[in-house]
Amino acid sequence: MRRVTAVLALLLLAALSACAADPPSGPAAAYGTARVDPAGRPVTLTVGVFGSFGLQEAGLYDTYMRLHPDVAVRQTSIERNENYYPQLLTHLVTGSGLADVQAVEVGNVAEVIATQGDRLVDLGRVPGVERRAFLPWKWAQGTGRDGRTVALGTDIGPQAVCYRRDLFARAGLPAGREEVGRLWAGDWRRFLAAGRRFAARAPEGTAFTDSASGVLAAVVSSGRRRFYDERGALVIGTDPAVREAWDLAAAFARQGLTARLQQFTPGWDQGFANGAFAAVVCPAWMLGYIQDKSGPAGKGLWDVAAAPLPGNRGGSFLVVPKTGPHRAEAARLAAWLTAPAQQARVFARRGSFPSASAAHALPAVAAARHPYFGDTPVGAIFGAAARGVPSAPIGPKEGLVAQLLTDGGMLLVDQTGRDPDEAWTDALRSIDNALDR
Q: Minimal CA–CA distance to 203: which of 176, 253, 165?
């Protein structure tokens, strides 16, 4: 979400003024208090991120520097994570070329912790960091088997369903968000049934949903078991959960309920504007994307309803490499950037939903409404989804496995009519080859 109402903005500023103070100082032996380098010069901290991460855009660095006039913060950014992440791994292995604070995407965090965790500062011990301030499943994702929490969560992607009120009404379906949510509450198969109802009277040229791959990602993200088990072993070929999600997503394709689009491509972008589909499973961060692609003409046509089951797609973390010359101050910065008040501010400015559950009670989050989506209470909808996300294990190649399943497997079922069983077998083979299994 790019904007909140002026009233909420004022409430947020009040919350920030009350909460933006430095974390209480802790044991000097562990983290110290000096903010000058050995030569007595003010410290400059670098933060390495990918894409438009939101911290700089929300003005957090400027605020931190006002609170700490002897610290300068500078950000470096690489546009896409697929280019950023390999460089991060290389720099961690060599111990050079690293920023003082580095961002890590959720699909990569398990691999970073498993293979590079000993090269990262234990942020769970930084003064001011409180485990209970974070969602339990998010805290667990940043914690290794040795109990060290080396990654602090920034945002998460709790999911709902964004839908076109006008297209639902024209197809004879309820249009109010609570009634729409009840259509499929509790079961993704009811989402499929709603799709069939929509298709029976669909406006010409409009499919129920955007893609079978989007459905697959949504269903998998709401499960208690995804691609890996609790020991970090890949179980996608033996555990039934993902195969059931695959079969359900394939049913959307086989029954003609999708617009056969690939997410985050020009065709998908155009689909928002021209009414190519009536519903899309949308993590919180997708609201701004939909607003941009649908444009002014879509204002008031889109709404948001609860998803059949809560799940999470996306989100990131901050880590502090041990090799940095200012790791004590870097740890303090990472702790401050991920504190509830700062996460609420990023949500208000950028729409990134907080991973700090303590932020969910702040007015800027709890009372947030989105004017583009019919004044939808997005804070309440996505907050409820976040609280219900199951604590599923994530593995070292989570992002790669997901990409091979969706873009390399389900996309063929959706766009070319490939037999789902054959596509499943080929997708598993591709995963095995990519992981050298």
A: 165
d(CA 85, CA 223): 26
- Residue 185, amino acid: A
Q: 163: which strand partners?
A: 279, 303
| Phi and psi, residue 163, nearest 5° | -145, 160
How far, in Å, CA of 314 to CA of 284, rounded? 9
One of 1.10.357.10, 3.30.70.100, 3.40.50.720, 3.40.190.10 is the CATH number of 15-156+314-373, namely 3.40.190.10
pLDDT, mean of residues 197-210: 97
Q: 14-71: per-residue pLDDT in tens?
A: 333 333 333 333 332 334 344 555 555 579 999 999 988 999 999 999 999 999 999 9
- At residue 437, the 3 state secondary structure works out as coil
Is the pLDDT score of 149 beyond 80?
yes
HSE toward the beta carbon, residue 398, CA cutoff 13 A: 27
CATH architecture classification, 158-313+379-434 = 3-Layer(aba) Sandwich (3.40)
Distance CA 166, CA 174 (A): 10
Tokens 């994307």, residue located: 289
Residue 142's φ and ψ, nearest 5 degrees, are -95, 5
**Cα–Cα separations (whole angstroms), residue 265 to 206, 229, 232, 409:** 18, 32, 32, 17
What are the structural domain ranges in the chain?
Answer: 15-156+314-373, 158-313+379-434
Same fold, 15-156+314-373 and 158-313+379-434: yes
Tell me the sheet residues that pair with 209. Answer: 258, 279
% pLDDT > 90, the chain: 82
Burial class (CB in 10 A: 0-12, 13-18, 19+), 9: middle
